[in-house]
């Protein structure tokens, strides 16, 4: 059994082709620092961009030209769980040039958490825990165009590889909503387990992995059958999750709590739900992303104010990069 799991681990990158090493640009939402850290992994050069919100989550458009960050205005944010004014915001920042452009603000209201753009850069989808909906933003028009009802306290969300399905983790309903982006008024809801926080599709779009913060597990879901295939035990307080490009494993960031932080990323085989390895990173592992060449994962360490790089060939943590206060969401381009 150990030998088979080792073979899975070593196969995570060998199946990705012969692409050479390249520099990654990593974007980190510093929730307690009201800023974004933009890091060149090759030179370690870090640019800190102040923004007018406490950013909980961040993503980058497919062309790599635009950063999207969500959160509450800094003066109103308090803790992430605090609901306040109707001033939730989406920040857009052009990074096509040598230096980040000035942040542009779209007021979305409520209490936004996560954001994902579609592949064309036309629309962004944001979860709003205050109205139990997904906010739809026209990116070129810089305006809200609608809301999609889901269930109680939506948090993490991701689009399927073909862009036709939006999966939303509803933390207080213990469900995941599946929304057809071509017909968004009809959503299906799947019971998955306690306190789902984030979701991740495999590259086929047929498997969905959900972190269950209230169970210290992940649920592995058959999307077509709309059912949980199995659950897998991970670390303490799992938060974000990401599936490897070959679809064989999920990486799960385990944050734990402020009193008892976890510092591990669990690597789980999707075929049988078995643990391949726990990779030690920094305190409070929260956000996770795999770089676009599929060779390196990056993890935010919320209580250490750093991010860690994980080599997916050896499944070991390498360099740590200092960032701002309370790093949370993370994206790569």
Automatic annotation (TrEMBL):
The keyword Signal applies. Residues 1-23 form the signal peptide. This is YNCE-like beta-propeller domain-containing protein. Residues 188-330 form the YNCE-like beta-propeller domain. Keywords: Signal. It comes from Bosea vaviloviae. PANTHER family: DIHYDRO-HEME D1 DEHYDROGENASE, PROTEIN NIRF. The lineage of its organism: Bacteria, Pseudomonadati, Pseudomonadota, Alphaproteobacteria, Hyphomicrobiales. The keyword Protein transport does not apply. It holds the Pfam family Lactonase.
